[in-house]
Amino acid sequence: VVVDGRGHTVYVLTADGHSNTLCQDASGCTKLWPDLPLPDGTSGAKAATGIDASKLSTMKESDGETYPTYNGWLMYEFAGDSGPAQSNGEGIHSFGGTWYALDASGHLVQPAAPTASTPTISSSNGY
After folding, report:
1. 67, CA 20 to 30 Å: which among 6, 22, 43, 92?
2. Is the predicted pLDDT of residue 115 greater than 70, yes or no?
3. pTM of the shown model
4. 101, 73 in Cβ contact below 8 A?
């Protein structure tokens, strides 16, 4: 999954699986899902190993801040992840959508679909 410079999983919020849903300060969203504004004087994020630099961009929001995007997705952290390599926010439904991590190709990381299995009953009585 995509992580920030500190190794923390980044998440996106989407209501439809295809477009961003904004996490805003006014709703309290960014208290649980901190946004990742670029530091003052920085014009863009830098791609580290495994990240496709062509998918890394920025978006300027109405608050005047510039935020990094990956494959068009605005990225956030989750306050419930206390350190690197955690993904406790994956699949949480809140603030008008569902939170997903991103894979290196810029797609949502979603749980695998359950596989159907047929229960088998076995007994010596033939049923």
Report:
1. 92
2. no
3. 0.83
4. no
Residue 57 structure tokens = 């961009």
69-108 in b/e burial notation, b at 16+ Cβ within 10 A?
Answer: bbbebbbbbbeebeeeeebebbebeebebbbbbbeeebeb
Residues belonging to the chain:
127
* DSSP designation for 49: T
Confidence check: pLDDT of 90 > 90: yes
How far apart CA 61 and CA 67 sit, in angstroms, is 8
Euclidean distance between CA atoms 64 and 62, whole angstroms = 5
From first CA to last CA, the distance across the chain in angstroms is 47
